[in-house]
Design a protein that fits this description.
The complex is a heterodimer of chains A (288) and B (283).
Chain A lengths: L1 H29 L4 H27 L5 H21 L1 H12 L3 H6 L4 H31 L10 H28 L4 H15 L11 H7 L3 H14 L10 H33 L9
Helix pairs in contact in A: 1-6, 2-3, 2-6, 3-6, 3-7, 3-8, 3-10, 4-6, 4-7, 6-7, 7-8, 7-10, 7-11, 10-11
Chain B lengths: L2 H36 L3 H22 L6 H22 L1 H8 L1 H7 L4 H31 L8 H25 L6 H16 L11 H7 L3 H13 L10 H33 L8
Helix pairs in contact in B: 1-6, 2-3, 2-6, 3-6, 3-7, 6-7, 7-10, 7-11, 10-11
The chains are: A mainly alpha (288), B mainly alpha (283).
């Protein structure tokens, strides 16, 4: 009886922490403007990133577009919106709460797990990225005639790969938050810089077969590679060069790499947290 | 007082003001340059990893069967370092200084804020120039980019005019941002990628057409990049405007933004004082 009550209390506490963190995220980052400007804020980055690729392709093709290639570029870029929007939120939460609002120590000593708080803060960003993903694909279908047919999309595969993808994103984010606790000057740039590096090796905008051997090997152990591939496969219906031909095998590899990366990420977070506590960095503003 | 004495006094005051301004400039530029040497982790975050992003866009051209265009990407990536610096370390700087409590100290200092902005610009430019050169060298080596310099003096002139106009724009924005609070971060984020698109960091701006390209020319990087590409990759064509016209427009933009920065700083500082926004934090 006592154990059940304790479990109920824990899950209630977990939900409460998550809810409070989501609300806080909206209050600090979402309510600064009117809904139209906020929509522009959500959509500006992913649509621009996709259009950069479209114009690069237009230059190369001399205006003769191939919808299959455009589809490849647009879906990869739209999926990347999740990475760009969500992953950087974790270290930014740590840094802004520590450096800008000087609140990190109070959040940290509150009766909840800090990781739960971080996940809660990132949750609204997943919703924002989902809107950007949908709008970017819609623009691709309507204006660029990319071959996405609403009836032939494999929605189940899309949903499953997305959910697993979110887990890997949270894993990366948690590790970056840990690093942000111990880094000083480079902390603000870290997530953007690492996200840029992952952009290269995950096959987001070109097939991984074009990468030199060692980079291709790196790309094959990153779960984001399989996430982007399965998203492409479920939406466009074809596989990319260098990826397993079976979707089931690709999904299995995505699950395995996600478990590995997330486990390593959480361990890395706790190691960083330990050092941050030892060095007194939880409430030390670096002024950067 | 004799006219000669008055003249001497004026000259002496002017000299003193210039000396103070110069010292302020060097003083504000100093941490930007020296901190890079003291904490070398920026090499990893601001050079090594951004190079990988440049390489990613280079691979896009390679995968599309046009490796000759990778030079556009490499040059764009090198110039992107300046845009990032202007956006985050110039435009947003006074906002961060306000958050950390330094802005009040700047305003109480005996020298003009314009000298402080000039110091920020100078320090940022020098530090970013090094990063930019490293990105250019690494990118060029990886993709085997070859440059056919049409005219070195014109290339240098375009670069200098672009930098003056760009940092002038950054100075202007920095004072305008004093009117905002939390929105600053979002405004910066909103600006970063769409501007990468319309200024043509990774492709010639000509692809956007005359109207969008013309509107994008208000941002000095658009014409600066196009002009430099014409000076470095004449064999690829794809120019937007002739270099002479681009130089003239860049000159006008440089002047406009410098005058605009001076005007907006005075005006916004006054307005911000009236509205009590100079020391307003965490709003």
């Amino acid at each position: 009886m006592a154990i059940t009550e304790q479990k109920n209390r824990n899950s209630y506490g977990l939900l409460n922490s998550l809810r409070a963190a989501v609300w806080l995220e909206w209050q600090t980052r979402g309510n600064w403007t009117n809904p139209w400007l906020f929509t522009l804020y959500i959509l500006g980055k992913p649509i621009s990133a996709a259009l950069v690729l479209v114009f690069m392709y237009q230059i190369v093709s001399g205006g003769r577009s191939n919808p299959t290639i455009l589809g490849y570029l647009i879906v990869g870029s739209a999926t990347w919106a999740f990475v760009d929007t969500v992953m950087g939120e974790f270290p930014r939460t740590v840094l802004s709460d520590r450096e800008e609002y000087a609140m990190l120590k109070y959040v940290y000593i509150a009766p909840h797990r800090f990781i739960t708080f971080l996940i809660g803060r990132a949750t609204p960003r997943i919703l924002m990225a989902a809107v950007a993903f949908t709008v970017t694909l819609s623009i691709g279908v309507v204006f660029l005639k990319i071959p996405i047919h609403i009836v032939s999309v494999n929605y189940l595969l899309l949903l499953v790969t997305m959910l697993i993808g979110f887990v890997s994103l949270i894993g990366f984010g948690v590790a970056f938050a840990g690093l942000a606790l111990v880094l000083k000057r480079g902390a603000w740039d870290m997530s953007t810089a690492i996200s840029g590096a992952l952009y290269l090796v995950t096959g987001a905008i070109f097939p991984i077969t074009i990468l030199p051997g060692f980079l291709r090997d790196i790309s094959l152990v990153i779960p984001l590679t399989y996430w982007i591939e399965l998203t492409r496969r479920s939406v466009l219906g074809y596989s990319s060069p260098g990826m397993p031909s079976s979707w089931a095998v690709t999904l299995l590899i995505q699950i395995i790499t996600t478990i590995l990366v997330t486990t390593i990420a959480v361990i890395a977070y706790y190691i960083c947290e330990h050092f941050a506590k030892e060095r007194g960095q939880l409430d030390r503003a670096t002024g950067n | 007082m004799e006219p000669a004495q008055q003249q001497n006094l004026k000259t002496s005051q002017w000299r003193e003001s210039l000396r103070l301004g110069w010292r302020t400039l060097i003083g504000r530029a100093y941490p930007r340059i020296v901190s890079a040497a003291r904490e070398p982790d920026w090499v990893f975050y601001e050079v090594a990893l951004p190079v990988l992003q440049v390489i990613a866009f280079g691979f896009v051209y390679k995968s599309l069967g046009r490796p000759q265009y990778t030079g556009f990407v490499v040059l764009g990536g090198a110039m992107l370092a300046f845009w990032t610096n202007v956006l985050w370390s110039m435009a947003g700087q006074l906002h961060w200084e306000r958050q950390t409590g330094n802005l009040e100290l700047y305003l109480m200092a005996p020298s003009s804020m314009l000298w402080i902005l000039a110091g920020m610009a100078f320090g940022g430019m020098v530090a970013t120039l090094f990063r930019s050169i490293v990105i250019l060298l690494i990118g060029s080596l990886i993709f085997g980019v070859t440059y056919q310099i049409v005219s070195a003096p014109l290339l240098i002139l375009i670069f200098i005019l672009t930098m003056v106009a760009l940092y002038g724009l950054g100075s202007m924005l920095s004072s305008l941002y004093l009117m905002y609070n939390r929105e600053v971060w979002a405004i910066q984020e909103v600006m970063q990628d769409p501007i990468s698109l319309i200024t043509g960091f990774y492709f010639p701006v000509r692809a956007l057409g005359g109207i969008i390209g013309g509107l994008a020319s208000v941002i000095p990087l658009t014409l600066g990049l196009d002009g430099m590409r014409q000076m470095l990759f004449p064999q690829l064509g794809q120019s937007f405007l002739p270099p002479g016209i681009e130089i003239a427009i860049l000159g006008v933009l440089a002047l406009l933004f410098l005058v605009g920065a001076s005007w907006s700083l005075t005006y916004i500082e006054k307005l911000a004082k009236i509205e009590g926004r100079l020391s307003l934090k965490w709003q």
